[in-house]
Amino acid sequence: MGVKENVITKYMGQKHIFADLLNYYIHGGRQVIGPHSLEELDICEAEALYGGQDGDGQLAQGTGGVMESLIAMTDGRAAYLLLAVEAQPDIYDVMLAENMVYDAFQYAEQVSGAAVSYRCSDDCRGADGDGYLSGFMKQGRILPVVTLVVYLSAREWDGPMSLHEVFGEQDARILALVPDYKVNLVAPASIKDSDFEKFHTSLKEVLSFIKYSQDTDRLWKAVEADEGFRHLGRAEADVLNAYAGVNLDMEKDKEAINVCLALEEMKRRAAEKARGKERVAAEENRISTLMKNV
Fold first, then answer.
1. Backbone angles phi, psi at 93, to 5 degrees
2. Labelling 123: which of 8, 146, 150, 221 has CA 20 to 30 A away?
3. For residues 283 and 287, what is the distance between their CA atoms, to the nearest angstrom?
4. Rounded to an integer, what distance in angstroms lies between the CA atom of residue 225 and that of residue 17?
């Protein structure tokens, strides 16, 4: 797993961050899913479908390297998959298919797990032949799988939002027989300014910073108006450094950084560097003029 993948997985894999994202997207910011209710799900076999266990622990190269991280948790009511992706030219070509495979695998895992559980208990006694062989009883139930895609870019998402969009022109009678798989997307550029208040963790700062990272004036306004930027944690700073094109320099013995001061320092250094280039250019021009007069 590369540096970027480690950074985003470490950050998004925190249960309070994971829960905050789910509550924002599913419940409009209401605190319905608590961090304490979440349990991690094993995703090693799912990653293996894409070569995730073949040496370097990354998803197979055949996917185009689209997925930055895959995190899975459950609260007993649903299984939640979080996929973090960043802007790449080929991202739209494979993401929908990958999402579908991960969802299908999670359902298959639940059915398989239920079968093992039934066979190890008394629940299979008296079951008919088919029920006993499959291990999954008529009264068996599985959890719905909810997959969220977090788009780690300041760019607007302009790719397809459903499987049917990728098909192009098709006979409506055929499409009626093909389930439409839709993307549940969290893209900073699409989040309204007022909706950032629906976050209750540092996701508010991380996603708003990414949203405005290409607009200096709006970024400054967002940073100055949000007290959370006065003491942003190391994990958050690492995400911004990796995905927002910034270089927040945090001292090794510190676990928080004042982003306002850090940006001021970066601005000062950039100004000094620009003045230095101007002085060099002026001196080169002066020398050039003197040489012409010789």
1. -70, -30
2. 146
3. 6
4. 22
User: Which segment, 15-24, 140-149, 241-250, 277-286, is predicted with the most confidence on average?
Assistant: 15-24
pLDDT tens digits, residue range 102-137?
888 888 888 777 665 555 555 555 555 554 445 555
Check the CA dihedral 243-249-251-257 and report its sign: negative
Between CA 144 and CA 122 the distance in angstroms is 26
The answer to whether 24 touches 198, Cβ cutoff 8 Å, is yes
Residues forming a β-bridge with 69: 84
Q: What is the pLDDT of residues 195-204, one digit of tens each?
A: 999 999 999 9
Sheet with 145-151, strands from edge to edge, namely 39-40, 67-74, 79-85, 145-151, 185-186
Within 13 Å, how many C-alpha atoms sit on residue 13's CB side?
A: 16
Crossing angle for the helix pair 203-212 and 216-225, nearest 10 degrees? 160
Tokens of 176: 């009626």
CB 38 within 8 A of CB 18: yes
38: phi > 0 → left, psi -120 to 50 → alpha, else beta; which? Answer: beta
pTM above 0.90? no
Give the residue from 210, 1, 181 showing the smallest Cα distance to 87.
210
Check if the beta carbon of residue 82 is closer than 8 Å to that of residue 102.
Answer: no
Structure tokens at 77: 């009511």
